[in-house]
Amino acid sequence: MSKNTPITVAYGDGIGPEIMEATLNIITSAGAELDIETIEIGEQVYLRGNLAGIEPSAWDSLRRTKVFLKAPITTPQGGGYKSLNVTTRKTLGLYANVRPCISYHPYVSTKHPVMDVVIVRENEEDLYAGIEYRQTQDVYQCLKLISRPGSEKIIRYAFEYAVYNNRKKVTCFVKDNIMKLTDGLFHKIFRDIAAEYPDIENEVWIVDIGAAKMANTPENFDVIVMENLYGDILSDVAAQITGSVGLAGSANIGENFAMFEAIHGSAPRRAGQNLANPSGLLLGGVMMLNHIGQSEIATKVHNAWLKTLEDGIHTYDIFKDNISKEKVGTKEFAKAVIERLGQVPGKLKPVKYKKSDEVKRKQAEVSKLKIQQKDLVGVDIYLDWRNGSAEDLGEILKKVGTDNLKLGFISNRGVKVWPDGEPETFCTDHWRCRYVTVNSGETINNSDVIKLLEKFYDTGFDFIKTEHIYNFDGAAGYS
Ligand code: NAD
Fold this sequence. Notes:
Bound molecules: nicotinamide-adenine-dinucleotide
CATH architecture of the largest domain: 3-Layer(aba) Sandwich
Distance between the termini: 59 Å
Number of strands: 20
Protein backbone atom coordinates (compact mmCIF):
# COMPACT_ATOMS: atom_id res chain seq x y z
CA MET A 1 0.00 0.00 0.00
CA SER A 2 1.23 3.52 -0.81
CA LYS A 3 2.48 5.44 2.21
CA ASN A 4 1.83 8.65 0.33
CA THR A 5 -0.61 11.14 1.81
CA PRO A 6 -3.48 12.04 -0.52
CA ILE A 7 -4.02 15.77 -0.95
CA THR A 8 -6.29 17.86 -3.14
CA VAL A 9 -4.66 20.57 -5.24
CA ALA A 10 -6.24 23.50 -7.10
CA TYR A 11 -4.06 25.48 -9.50
CA GLY A 12 -6.37 28.52 -9.35
CA ASP A 13 -6.29 31.58 -11.61
CA GLY A 14 -3.89 34.36 -12.63
CA ILE A 15 -0.45 33.57 -11.24
CA GLY A 16 -1.95 30.51 -9.46
CA PRO A 17 -0.83 27.80 -11.93
CA GLU A 18 2.75 29.11 -12.05
CA ILE A 19 3.23 29.37 -8.29
CA MET A 20 1.53 26.00 -7.73
CA GLU A 21 3.80 24.29 -10.22
CA ALA A 22 6.84 25.85 -8.52
CA THR A 23 5.59 24.86 -5.07
CA LEU A 24 4.85 21.24 -6.02
CA ASN A 25 8.19 21.00 -7.81
CA ILE A 26 10.05 22.10 -4.71
CA ILE A 27 8.20 19.98 -2.17
CA THR A 28 8.25 16.80 -4.27
CA SER A 29 11.97 17.32 -5.02
CA ALA A 30 12.45 17.52 -1.24
CA GLY A 31 10.85 14.09 -0.93
CA ALA A 32 7.26 14.94 0.04
CA GLU A 33 5.20 11.78 -0.21
CA LEU A 34 1.95 12.88 -1.78
CA ASP A 35 -0.83 11.44 -3.91
CA ILE A 36 -2.16 14.53 -5.65
CA GLU A 37 -5.78 14.86 -6.79
CA THR A 38 -6.34 17.98 -8.90
CA ILE A 39 -9.61 19.89 -8.87
CA GLU A 40 -10.77 22.91 -10.82
CA ILE A 41 -12.02 25.94 -8.90
CA GLY A 42 -12.37 29.64 -9.55
CA GLU A 43 -12.97 31.91 -12.51
CA GLN A 44 -13.84 29.37 -15.21
CA VAL A 45 -16.18 27.51 -12.86
CA TYR A 46 -17.89 30.77 -11.90
CA LEU A 47 -18.22 31.79 -15.54
CA ARG A 48 -19.86 28.45 -16.39
CA GLY A 49 -22.68 29.65 -14.12
CA ASN A 50 -21.68 27.93 -10.90
CA LEU A 51 -22.08 30.80 -8.41
CA ALA A 52 -19.98 29.05 -5.76
CA GLY A 53 -16.95 28.63 -8.06
CA ILE A 54 -16.56 24.96 -7.16
CA GLU A 55 -18.10 21.81 -8.69
CA PRO A 56 -19.77 19.06 -6.60
CA SER A 57 -17.07 16.58 -7.73
CA ALA A 58 -14.41 18.82 -6.15
CA TRP A 59 -16.12 18.43 -2.77
CA ASP A 60 -15.87 14.63 -3.21
CA SER A 61 -12.10 14.93 -3.57
CA LEU A 62 -11.85 17.22 -0.53
CA ARG A 63 -13.94 14.80 1.53
CA ARG A 64 -11.60 11.97 0.51
CA THR A 65 -8.27 13.70 1.16
CA LYS A 66 -9.26 16.20 3.86
CA VAL A 67 -6.19 18.27 2.92
CA PHE A 68 -6.38 21.11 0.40
CA LEU A 69 -3.48 23.02 -1.15
CA LYS A 70 -5.07 25.92 -2.94
CA ALA A 71 -3.65 28.57 -5.27
CA PRO A 72 -5.36 31.98 -5.38
CA ILE A 73 -8.38 32.41 -7.58
CA THR A 74 -10.03 35.32 -9.36
CA THR A 75 -13.60 36.09 -8.40
CA PRO A 76 -15.27 37.61 -11.48
CA GLN A 77 -16.65 41.13 -11.10
CA GLY A 78 -20.39 41.51 -10.90
CA GLY A 79 -23.11 40.31 -8.62
CA GLY A 80 -24.10 36.88 -7.46
CA TYR A 81 -20.69 35.21 -7.12
CA LYS A 82 -20.07 33.82 -3.65
CA SER A 83 -16.62 34.01 -2.08
CA LEU A 84 -15.06 30.57 -2.52
CA ASN A 85 -12.84 31.12 0.50
CA VAL A 86 -15.77 31.84 2.79
CA THR A 87 -17.70 28.87 1.34
CA THR A 88 -14.76 26.50 1.83
CA ARG A 89 -14.06 27.68 5.37
CA LYS A 90 -17.67 27.35 6.43
CA THR A 91 -18.44 24.09 4.61
CA LEU A 92 -15.34 22.32 5.93
CA GLY A 93 -15.51 23.91 9.40
CA LEU A 94 -12.07 25.53 9.09
CA TYR A 95 -12.36 27.54 12.27
CA ALA A 96 -8.72 28.63 12.65
CA ASN A 97 -6.81 30.81 10.22
CA VAL A 98 -3.11 30.84 11.05
CA ARG A 99 -0.78 33.37 9.43
CA PRO A 100 2.88 33.58 10.44
CA CYS A 101 4.21 37.06 9.56
CA ILE A 102 8.00 37.17 9.72
CA SER A 103 10.63 39.72 8.66
CA TYR A 104 13.64 38.54 6.69
CA HIS A 105 15.90 41.49 7.43
CA PRO A 106 18.29 42.43 5.83
CA TYR A 107 17.35 40.32 2.81
CA VAL A 108 13.85 41.74 2.42
CA SER A 109 13.47 45.45 2.98
CA THR A 110 11.21 46.21 5.97
CA LYS A 111 10.69 48.93 8.57
CA HIS A 112 10.60 46.20 11.21
CA PRO A 113 13.77 44.12 11.14
CA VAL A 114 12.69 42.10 14.18
CA MET A 115 9.25 40.65 13.62
CA ASP A 116 7.95 37.14 14.11
CA VAL A 117 4.22 37.34 14.77
CA VAL A 118 1.62 34.63 14.23
CA ILE A 119 -1.95 35.81 13.82
CA VAL A 120 -4.54 33.22 14.82
CA ARG A 121 -7.86 34.43 13.47
CA GLU A 122 -11.29 32.94 14.19
CA ASN A 123 -12.66 32.04 10.79
CA GLU A 124 -16.38 31.25 11.02
CA GLU A 125 -18.22 33.69 13.27
CA ASP A 126 -18.43 37.38 14.10
CA LEU A 127 -19.75 39.79 11.47
CA TYR A 128 -18.81 37.19 8.83
CA ALA A 129 -21.87 35.08 9.63
CA GLY A 130 -23.22 37.04 6.66
CA ILE A 131 -26.53 37.90 8.33
CA GLU A 132 -27.54 41.38 7.20
CA TYR A 133 -30.80 43.24 6.86
CA ARG A 134 -32.12 46.51 5.62
CA GLN A 135 -34.71 47.44 8.21
CA THR A 136 -35.84 50.98 7.44
CA GLN A 137 -35.28 53.66 4.83
CA ASP A 138 -32.22 54.80 6.77
CA VAL A 139 -30.82 51.85 8.62
CA TYR A 140 -29.06 48.59 7.72
CA GLN A 141 -27.94 45.91 10.16
CA CYS A 142 -25.21 43.27 10.27
CA LEU A 143 -25.37 40.69 13.02
CA LYS A 144 -22.24 39.99 15.06
CA LEU A 145 -22.38 36.47 16.47
CA ILE A 146 -19.78 35.26 18.97
CA SER A 147 -20.31 31.81 20.45
CA ARG A 148 -18.85 30.11 23.49
CA PRO A 149 -17.74 26.96 21.60
CA GLY A 150 -16.35 29.03 18.70
CA SER A 151 -14.33 31.22 21.05
CA GLU A 152 -13.08 28.29 23.13
CA LYS A 153 -11.93 26.43 20.02
CA ILE A 154 -9.92 29.30 18.54
CA ILE A 155 -8.40 30.44 21.84
CA ARG A 156 -7.38 26.91 22.81
CA TYR A 157 -5.97 26.47 19.33
CA ALA A 158 -3.82 29.60 19.82
CA PHE A 159 -2.40 28.30 23.12
CA GLU A 160 -1.81 24.81 21.73
CA TYR A 161 -0.08 26.41 18.73
CA ALA A 162 2.13 28.37 21.13
CA VAL A 163 3.10 25.23 23.07
CA TYR A 164 3.72 23.18 19.92
CA ASN A 165 5.85 25.90 18.31
CA ASN A 166 7.83 26.96 21.40
CA ARG A 167 6.19 30.35 21.48
CA LYS A 168 6.33 32.40 24.69
CA LYS A 169 3.26 34.59 24.69
CA VAL A 170 -0.33 34.71 23.46
CA THR A 171 -2.00 38.12 23.14
CA CYS A 172 -5.74 38.65 22.70
CA PHE A 173 -7.19 41.71 20.92
CA VAL A 174 -10.80 42.62 21.78
CA LYS A 175 -13.09 45.63 21.93
CA ASP A 176 -14.94 44.69 25.10
CA ASN A 177 -14.99 48.25 26.44
CA ILE A 178 -17.72 48.75 23.81
CA MET A 179 -19.02 45.25 22.98
CA LYS A 180 -19.31 44.05 26.55
CA LEU A 181 -21.25 40.88 25.83
CA THR A 182 -19.73 39.53 22.58
CA ASP A 183 -16.12 40.67 22.97
CA GLY A 184 -16.57 40.37 26.73
CA LEU A 185 -17.24 36.65 26.25
CA PHE A 186 -14.14 36.27 24.06
CA HIS A 187 -12.04 38.10 26.69
CA LYS A 188 -13.38 35.99 29.58
CA ILE A 189 -12.79 32.73 27.72
CA PHE A 190 -9.25 33.91 26.89
CA ARG A 191 -8.59 34.50 30.61
CA ASP A 192 -10.03 31.08 31.56
CA ILE A 193 -8.04 29.16 28.96
CA ALA A 194 -4.83 31.17 29.58
CA ALA A 195 -4.95 29.97 33.21
CA GLU A 196 -4.54 26.39 31.94
CA TYR A 197 -1.21 27.36 30.31
CA PRO A 198 0.91 28.84 33.14
CA ASP A 199 4.12 28.51 31.09
CA ILE A 200 2.80 30.76 28.33
CA GLU A 201 2.62 34.47 29.04
CA ASN A 202 -0.71 36.08 28.19
CA GLU A 203 -2.05 39.60 27.75
CA VAL A 204 -5.14 41.37 26.48
CA TRP A 205 -5.23 44.64 24.53
CA ILE A 206 -8.13 46.70 23.31
CA VAL A 207 -7.89 46.13 19.55
CA ASP A 208 -7.37 49.76 18.54
CA ILE A 209 -4.30 50.44 20.65
CA GLY A 210 -3.19 46.82 20.23
CA ALA A 211 -3.23 47.22 16.45
CA ALA A 212 -1.31 50.48 16.70
CA LYS A 213 1.32 48.80 18.88
CA MET A 214 1.53 45.80 16.56
CA ALA A 215 2.13 48.09 13.58
CA ASN A 216 4.70 50.16 15.48
CA THR A 217 6.57 47.62 17.63
CA PRO A 218 5.73 44.16 16.25
CA GLU A 219 8.81 42.78 18.02
CA ASN A 220 6.79 42.90 21.26
CA PHE A 221 4.23 40.40 19.98
CA ASP A 222 4.35 36.65 19.50
CA VAL A 223 1.03 34.83 18.91
CA ILE A 224 -2.07 37.07 18.65
CA VAL A 225 -5.57 35.58 18.74
CA MET A 226 -8.54 37.56 17.42
CA GLU A 227 -12.13 37.40 16.32
CA ASN A 228 -12.78 37.18 12.59
CA LEU A 229 -13.00 40.83 11.48
CA TYR A 230 -10.08 42.15 13.55
CA GLY A 231 -8.03 39.14 12.42
CA ASP A 232 -8.90 39.64 8.77
CA ILE A 233 -7.73 43.25 8.80
CA LEU A 234 -4.75 42.91 11.10
CA SER A 235 -3.29 39.78 9.50
CA ASP A 236 -2.93 41.74 6.25
CA VAL A 237 -1.35 44.63 8.15
CA ALA A 238 1.05 42.23 9.86
CA ALA A 239 1.99 40.51 6.58
CA GLN A 240 2.48 43.81 4.77
CA ILE A 241 4.82 45.31 7.37
CA THR A 242 7.16 42.31 7.16
CA GLY A 243 8.04 43.71 3.73
CA SER A 244 5.64 42.00 1.32
CA VAL A 245 2.28 40.25 1.33
CA GLY A 246 3.84 37.96 -1.27
CA LEU A 247 5.86 36.18 1.41
CA ALA A 248 3.23 34.89 3.80
CA GLY A 249 1.46 31.54 3.78
CA SER A 250 -1.73 30.72 5.57
CA ALA A 251 -3.32 27.64 7.09
CA ASN A 252 -7.05 27.17 7.62
CA ILE A 253 -7.56 24.42 10.15
CA GLY A 254 -10.69 22.54 11.19
CA GLU A 255 -11.35 19.40 13.19
CA ASN A 256 -11.44 17.17 10.11
CA PHE A 257 -10.17 19.29 7.24
CA ALA A 258 -7.38 21.75 6.50
CA MET A 259 -6.67 24.18 3.67
CA PHE A 260 -3.30 25.80 2.91
CA GLU A 261 -2.68 28.79 0.67
CA ALA A 262 -0.77 32.03 0.11
CA ILE A 263 -2.35 35.09 1.61
CA HIS A 264 -2.13 37.12 -1.60
CA GLY A 265 -4.54 37.01 -4.53
CA SER A 266 -4.24 35.89 -8.14
CA ALA A 267 -2.37 39.05 -9.32
CA PRO A 268 -3.88 38.79 -12.83
CA ARG A 269 -1.61 41.51 -14.26
CA ARG A 270 1.44 39.35 -13.52
CA ALA A 271 -0.04 36.11 -14.81
CA GLY A 272 1.66 33.95 -17.43
CA GLN A 273 4.92 35.95 -17.42
CA ASN A 274 7.06 33.79 -15.10
CA LEU A 275 7.28 36.76 -12.72
CA ALA A 276 5.34 35.83 -9.59
CA ASN A 277 6.93 35.02 -6.27
CA PRO A 278 5.87 31.49 -5.24
CA SER A 279 7.03 32.00 -1.62
CA GLY A 280 3.60 32.56 -0.02
CA LEU A 281 2.16 29.36 -1.47
CA LEU A 282 5.39 27.47 -0.74
CA LEU A 283 5.17 28.46 2.95
CA GLY A 284 1.52 27.38 2.88
CA GLY A 285 2.88 24.08 1.53
CA VAL A 286 5.38 23.91 4.42
CA MET A 287 2.49 24.27 6.89
CA MET A 288 0.67 21.52 5.00
CA LEU A 289 3.68 19.18 5.24
CA ASN A 290 3.77 19.74 9.01
CA HIS A 291 0.04 19.13 9.21
CA ILE A 292 0.30 15.76 7.45
CA GLY A 293 3.25 14.68 9.60
CA GLN A 294 6.02 15.20 7.02
CA SER A 295 7.85 17.66 9.26
CA GLU A 296 11.36 16.63 8.18
CA ILE A 297 10.50 17.54 4.59
CA ALA A 298 8.88 20.78 5.85
CA THR A 299 12.12 21.68 7.66
CA LYS A 300 14.22 20.87 4.59
CA VAL A 301 12.06 22.97 2.25
CA HIS A 302 11.80 25.94 4.62
CA ASN A 303 15.56 26.08 5.27
CA ALA A 304 16.38 25.81 1.53
CA TRP A 305 13.94 28.67 0.92
CA LEU A 306 15.56 30.83 3.63
CA LYS A 307 18.98 30.09 2.12
CA THR A 308 17.72 31.16 -1.31
CA LEU A 309 16.47 34.48 0.11
CA GLU A 310 19.73 34.94 1.95
CA ASP A 311 21.74 34.26 -1.21
CA GLY A 312 19.98 37.25 -2.77
CA ILE A 313 18.04 35.27 -5.38
CA HIS A 314 14.87 37.30 -5.53
CA THR A 315 11.74 37.67 -7.65
CA TYR A 316 10.83 41.16 -8.88
CA ASP A 317 8.54 42.00 -5.94
CA ILE A 318 11.33 41.86 -3.34
CA PHE A 319 14.28 42.63 -5.64
CA LYS A 320 16.37 45.61 -4.44
CA ASP A 321 19.57 46.65 -6.22
CA ASN A 322 21.58 47.12 -3.05
CA ILE A 323 20.44 43.88 -1.35
CA SER A 324 19.62 41.35 -4.05
CA LYS A 325 22.13 39.47 -6.19
CA GLU A 326 20.01 38.02 -8.99
CA LYS A 327 16.52 38.86 -10.27
CA VAL A 328 14.78 35.64 -11.23
CA GLY A 329 11.43 34.43 -12.49
CA THR A 330 9.12 31.95 -10.79
CA LYS A 331 10.71 28.88 -12.39
CA GLU A 332 14.29 29.97 -11.70
CA PHE A 333 13.42 30.78 -8.11
CA ALA A 334 12.01 27.27 -7.66
CA LYS A 335 15.14 25.80 -9.26
CA ALA A 336 17.33 27.81 -6.86
CA VAL A 337 15.38 26.49 -3.85
CA ILE A 338 15.65 22.91 -5.16
CA GLU A 339 19.43 23.31 -5.57
CA ARG A 340 19.63 24.34 -1.91
CA LEU A 341 17.60 21.44 -0.47
CA GLY A 342 19.66 20.06 2.40
CA GLN A 343 21.32 23.42 3.14
CA VAL A 344 20.50 25.74 6.03
CA PRO A 345 20.71 29.54 6.12
CA GLY A 346 23.80 31.10 7.69
CA LYS A 347 22.36 34.42 8.85
CA LEU A 348 18.60 33.97 8.97
CA LYS A 349 17.42 31.67 11.75
CA PRO A 350 17.02 28.10 10.46
CA VAL A 351 13.78 26.28 11.30
CA LYS A 352 13.47 22.86 12.89
CA TYR A 353 9.96 21.53 13.01
CA LYS A 354 9.05 18.95 15.59
CA LYS A 355 7.95 15.54 14.41
CA SER A 356 4.21 15.22 14.79
CA ASP A 357 4.57 12.40 17.35
CA GLU A 358 6.81 14.53 19.58
CA VAL A 359 3.97 16.67 20.88
CA LYS A 360 0.39 15.58 21.24
CA ARG A 361 -1.80 18.52 20.49
CA LYS A 362 -5.10 18.79 22.34
CA GLN A 363 -8.07 18.57 20.05
CA ALA A 364 -10.32 21.57 19.71
CA GLU A 365 -12.28 20.43 22.72
CA VAL A 366 -15.09 22.52 24.09
CA SER A 367 -15.88 22.57 27.80
CA LYS A 368 -19.13 21.06 29.02
CA LEU A 369 -21.89 23.64 29.07
CA LYS A 370 -23.32 24.49 32.48
CA ILE A 371 -26.94 25.31 31.74
CA GLN A 372 -28.00 28.55 33.40
CA GLN A 373 -31.49 29.62 34.43
CA LYS A 374 -32.80 31.75 31.55
CA ASP A 375 -35.61 34.21 32.40
CA LEU A 376 -37.46 36.44 29.94
CA VAL A 377 -37.67 39.85 31.65
CA GLY A 378 -38.62 42.19 28.84
CA VAL A 379 -38.59 42.82 25.11
CA ASP A 380 -37.12 45.40 22.73
CA ILE A 381 -39.49 46.28 19.91
CA TYR A 382 -37.81 48.00 16.97
CA LEU A 383 -39.93 50.44 14.97
CA ASP A 384 -39.63 52.02 11.55
CA TRP A 385 -41.12 55.43 12.36
CA ARG A 386 -40.65 58.87 10.83
CA ASN A 387 -43.61 60.80 12.24
CA GLY A 388 -42.01 63.00 14.86
CA SER A 389 -39.48 63.41 17.65
CA ALA A 390 -38.36 61.02 20.38
CA GLU A 391 -40.51 62.96 22.80
CA ASP A 392 -43.56 62.49 20.53
CA LEU A 393 -42.92 58.74 20.28
CA GLY A 394 -42.44 58.40 24.03
CA GLU A 395 -45.72 60.18 24.73
CA ILE A 396 -47.59 57.79 22.37
CA LEU A 397 -45.90 54.59 23.55
CA LYS A 398 -46.47 55.43 27.23
CA LYS A 399 -50.07 54.52 26.46
CA VAL A 400 -49.21 51.33 24.50
CA GLY A 401 -48.63 48.52 26.94
CA THR A 402 -50.18 45.43 28.53
CA ASP A 403 -51.07 44.35 32.08
CA ASN A 404 -47.49 43.34 32.77
CA LEU A 405 -45.33 45.21 30.20
CA LYS A 406 -44.68 48.96 30.10
CA LEU A 407 -42.33 51.24 28.16
CA GLY A 408 -38.94 51.53 29.91
CA PHE A 409 -36.97 53.69 27.49
CA ILE A 410 -36.45 54.45 23.81
CA SER A 411 -33.07 54.58 22.14
CA ASN A 412 -31.95 55.53 18.64
CA ARG A 413 -28.70 54.03 17.29
CA GLY A 414 -27.93 52.98 20.86
CA VAL A 415 -28.41 56.43 22.44
CA LYS A 416 -31.21 56.79 24.98
CA VAL A 417 -33.57 59.47 23.66
CA TRP A 418 -36.59 58.99 25.95
CA PRO A 419 -37.19 59.75 28.76
CA ASP A 420 -34.90 62.73 29.35
CA GLY A 421 -33.26 62.68 25.93
CA GLU A 422 -31.04 65.52 24.78
CA PRO A 423 -32.53 67.71 22.03
CA GLU A 424 -29.22 67.68 20.10
CA THR A 425 -29.21 63.89 19.52
CA PHE A 426 -29.69 63.04 15.86
CA CYS A 427 -32.39 60.42 15.35
CA THR A 428 -32.92 58.09 12.40
CA ASP A 429 -36.13 56.23 11.55
CA HIS A 430 -34.96 53.18 13.57
CA TRP A 431 -36.21 53.14 17.17
CA ARG A 432 -35.53 50.62 19.91
CA CYS A 433 -38.41 50.60 22.41
CA ARG A 434 -37.53 48.70 25.58
CA TYR A 435 -40.52 47.17 27.37
CA VAL A 436 -39.99 46.01 30.92
CA THR A 437 -42.19 44.29 33.47
CA VAL A 438 -44.66 46.48 35.34
CA ASN A 439 -43.57 44.86 38.62
CA SER A 440 -39.81 44.74 38.58
CA GLY A 441 -38.29 41.32 39.19
CA GLU A 442 -41.17 39.50 37.47
CA THR A 443 -40.63 37.28 34.48
CA ILE A 444 -42.80 37.02 31.38
CA ASN A 445 -43.29 34.51 28.57
CA ASN A 446 -43.66 34.60 24.81
CA SER A 447 -47.44 34.99 24.95
CA ASP A 448 -46.92 38.29 26.83
CA VAL A 449 -44.72 39.45 23.96
CA ILE A 450 -47.35 38.44 21.41
CA LYS A 451 -50.03 40.40 23.32
CA LEU A 452 -47.79 43.47 23.29
CA LEU A 453 -47.11 43.09 19.58
CA GLU A 454 -50.86 42.90 18.93
CA LYS A 455 -51.19 46.26 20.69
CA PHE A 456 -48.52 47.69 18.40
CA TYR A 457 -50.26 46.24 15.38
CA ASP A 458 -53.63 47.65 16.48
CA THR A 459 -52.03 51.08 16.99
CA GLY A 460 -50.66 50.97 13.43
CA PHE A 461 -46.96 50.87 14.25
CA ASP A 462 -44.53 49.26 11.79
CA PHE A 463 -42.49 46.96 14.02
CA ILE A 464 -39.50 45.58 12.17
CA LYS A 465 -38.00 43.26 14.74
CA THR A 466 -38.13 42.19 18.34
CA GLU A 467 -35.28 41.19 20.59
CA HIS A 468 -36.01 39.29 23.77
CA ILE A 469 -34.41 40.48 26.99
CA TYR A 470 -33.13 37.60 29.13
CA ASN A 471 -31.42 37.21 32.46
CA PHE A 472 -29.10 34.22 32.85
CA ASP A 473 -28.81 33.10 36.49
CA GLY A 474 -30.02 36.60 37.34
CA ALA A 475 -27.32 38.39 35.31
CA ALA A 476 -28.39 40.69 32.46
CA GLY A 477 -27.90 39.09 29.03
CA TYR A 478 -28.47 42.34 27.15
CA SER A 479 -26.99 45.78 26.74
P1 NAD B 1 -3.35 40.48 -5.21
O1 NAD B 1 -2.83 39.91 -3.93
O2 NAD B 1 -3.62 39.52 -6.30
O3 NAD B 1 -2.31 41.57 -5.74
C1 NAD B 1 -1.92 42.70 -4.97
C2 NAD B 1 -0.56 43.20 -5.47
O4 NAD B 1 0.47 42.32 -5.06
C3 NAD B 1 -0.44 43.29 -7.00
O5 NAD B 1 0.38 44.38 -7.31
C4 NAD B 1 0.25 42.00 -7.38
O6 NAD B 1 0.97 42.09 -8.57
C5 NAD B 1 1.17 41.78 -6.18
N1 NAD B 1 1.36 40.35 -5.90
C6 NAD B 1 0.48 39.51 -5.28
N2 NAD B 1 0.99 38.29 -5.19
C7 NAD B 1 2.20 38.33 -5.74
C8 NAD B 1 3.21 37.35 -5.94
N3 NAD B 1 3.05 36.09 -5.52
N4 NAD B 1 4.34 37.73 -6.57
C9 NAD B 1 4.51 38.97 -6.96
N5 NAD B 1 3.61 39.94 -6.81
C10 NAD B 1 2.45 39.63 -6.20
O7 NAD B 1 -4.66 41.30 -4.84
P2 NAD B 1 -5.77 41.97 -5.80
O8 NAD B 1 -5.10 42.58 -6.98
O9 NAD B 1 -6.57 42.81 -4.90
O10 NAD B 1 -6.70 40.78 -6.27
C11 NAD B 1 -6.58 40.11 -7.51
C12 NAD B 1 -7.57 38.95 -7.56
O11 NAD B 1 -7.24 38.00 -6.55
C13 NAD B 1 -9.02 39.35 -7.31
O12 NAD B 1 -9.85 38.65 -8.20
C14 NAD B 1 -9.28 38.88 -5.89
O13 NAD B 1 -10.63 38.55 -5.70
C15 NAD B 1 -8.42 37.66 -5.83
N6 NAD B 1 -8.00 37.26 -4.46
C16 NAD B 1 -7.98 35.92 -4.22
C17 NAD B 1 -7.55 35.46 -2.99
C18 NAD B 1 -7.56 33.97 -2.75
O14 NAD B 1 -7.92 33.21 -3.63
N7 NAD B 1 -7.17 33.52 -1.57
C19 NAD B 1 -7.12 36.35 -2.01
C20 NAD B 1 -7.10 37.72 -2.31
C21 NAD B 1 -7.55 38.17 -3.55
